[in-house]
Amino acid sequence: MTASRMPVIRKDPNEEFFKMTLLAYKLNNSKQGALLKVSPMEMFIEVKKTGLPFHKWSEWIDSYLTRSLKERKENKKKIFSIYKNKLL
Questions:
Q1: Is 9 helix (H, G, I), strand (E, B) or coil?
Q2: pTM listed for this prediction
Q3: pLDDT bucket at 83, cuts 50 / 70 / 90
């Protein structure tokens, strides 16, 4: 009796490498809860558009997430300021 096997579908190795690099970054920066809200697929598409070689992706991830966190903090400050001014 032979079992029919489903063909193995291989994932894109670049995508897998990117996701693992992003996971390593998140684990090393776990105190920053906002990092968990990023879309790995959106980030992967964006880094691929830049044409960066894979060995520079960790630097790109650090820069991207640092910039994103800074923008989120600034937006929160603006929203708080607007809300505060409306109350006064």
A1: coil
A2: 0.72
A3: low
- Helix (H), strand (E) at residue 4: none
pLDDT tens digit sequence for 18-35: 999 999 998 888 766 656
- Neighbouring CB atoms inside 10 A of 61's CB total 21
Q: CA–CA separation, 72 vs 76, rounded Å?
A: 6
**Cβ contact 16:41 at 8 Å:** no
Amino acid in position 19? K
| Average pLDDT for 37-56 | 94
CA distance 80 to 40: 29
Token pair 């809300």: residue: 83
3-state SS track over 14-45:
HHHHHHHHHHHHHHHCCCCHHHHHCCHHHHHH
